[in-house]
Design a protein that fits this description.
Helix content is 44%, strand content 12%. It is of the alpha/beta class. It has a domain of 209 residues: TIM Barrel (Alpha-Beta Barrel). The chain has an 8-stranded parallel beta barrel, surrounded by 5 helices. Helix 1 packs across helix 2 and helix 2 packs parallel to helix 3. The longest helix has 19 residues. It is globular. Pathway: Amino-acid biosynthesis; L-lysine biosynthesis via DAP pathway; (S)-tetrahydrodipicolinate from L-aspartate: step 3/4. Catalyzes the condensation of (S)-aspartate-beta-semialdehyde [(S)-ASA] and pyruvate to 4-hydroxy-tetrahydrodipicolinate (HTPA). One of its GO terms (biological process) is diaminopimelate biosynthetic process. It comes from Streptomyces wuyuanensis.
Length: 321
């Protein structure tokens, strides 16, 4: 029997899909971004993914995107990977964004499937290869057909995996069989982009996750992977279950994760600011529910948690932010 290859982890394991903090008047809050980035890294994030869906990339300018990458790079130094979202509906524009992000200090690029035009698989292959050829840092492809309208089919992923700079996938395709096949047959590092698949995908060989919930709860999200890696699979399952109420409210309540993440971060005193239109802020009731779920998770998961006791038997309630 052939033993499985070691998991490739080009950007670490626990990555946060970081929000883009704004000031009260809606402008970029680069100081806030640096504070939030430093906090997330101190709380266990191996990497930060900027200018993605959660980072409101559809409503930030090219200059704002580049400035954010530069500011976060300065804040975290070499303590974490910085992956910059550069995907767009245009190959030429994606290349321009990718080069700007590389020059600003990004370690990698998140390249989403071109949206709206719904290119066929051969065109996707050409798009990803052209972007990879044009830059000097690795790519994480973003497969999220629910938003883009087009799946990156497993055969396409296996085909483009031969390119030396296409190294990873952020997976929001909800196809465990297809993802498992690509993981088994290529060296692509898979990162779950949907919190409910973090543990299942990790169990079949993924590298880790890119999480919106990690904006507010980086330690509990990472703890699931830590327990699994240590061979404590029952504990990993229990810890994963603790995160589900907050995950459901943040990611499956009918509101975009950007809206819920900013509402919760604002409630717990971390830089966030308003969302940009057409998004609208969460109402008071929603924000209150998010805060209650967050506080319950904090009560069940204190910061001094050590390996051994089951989560229900852990120490006194306290906050881990």
């Amino acid at each position: 029997m052939t033993m499985p290859r070691p998991r490739p982890r080009p950007f670490g394991r626990a990555l946060c899909a970081m929000i883009t903090p704004f000031t009260a008047d809606g402008g970029p809050d680069l100081d806030g971004a640096q504070k939030l980035a430093s906090h997330l890294v101190a709380e266990g994030c191996d990497g930060l993914v900027l200018n993605g869906t959660t980072g409101e990339s559809p409503t930030t300018t090219d200059a704002e995107k580049t400035a954010l990458v530069r500011a976060v790079r300065e804040a975290v130094g070499d303590r974490a990977a910085v992956v910059a979202g550069v995907g767009s509906a245009s190959t030429r524009h994606t290349v321009e964004l990718g080069r700007a992000a590389q020059n600003a200090g990004a370690d990698g690029l998140l390249v989403v499937t071109p949206y709206y035009s719904r290119p066929p698989q051969a065109a996707l292959t050409a798009h990803f290869r052209q972007v990879a050829d044009a830059v000097g840092i690795p790519l994480m492809l973003y497969d999220i057909p629910g938003r883009t309208g087009t799946r990156i089919e497993p055969d396409t992923l296996m085909r483009v995996s031969a390119h030396p700079r296409i190294v990873a996938v952020k997976d929001c395709a909800y196809d465990l069989l297809g993802s498992s096949k690509v993981i088994a047959r290529t060296s692509l590092a898979y990162y779950s982009g949907c919190e409910e698949t973090n543990l299942p995908l990790y169990a079949v060989g993924a590298a880790g996750f890119v999480s919106t919930v990690a904006n507010a709860a980086p330690r509990p999200m990472r703890a699931v992977l830590d327990a699994f890696d240590a061979g404590r699979t029952a504990e990993a399952t229990a810890l994963n279950q603790l995160t589900l109420p907050l995950t459901e409210l943040m990611m499956a309540s009918g509101l975009p994760g950007t809206v819920t993440a900013k509402a919760l971060l604002g409630a717990i005193g971390l830089p966030a600011g308003p969302v940009r239109e057409p998004l609208q802020p969460a109402d008071r009731e929603t924000a209150g529910g998010l805060l209650a779920a967050y506080e319950e998770l904090a009560r069940l998961y204190p910061p001094d948690r050590q390996a051994g006791p089951a989560p229900a038997l852990l120490g006194p309630a306290q906050s881990w932010t």
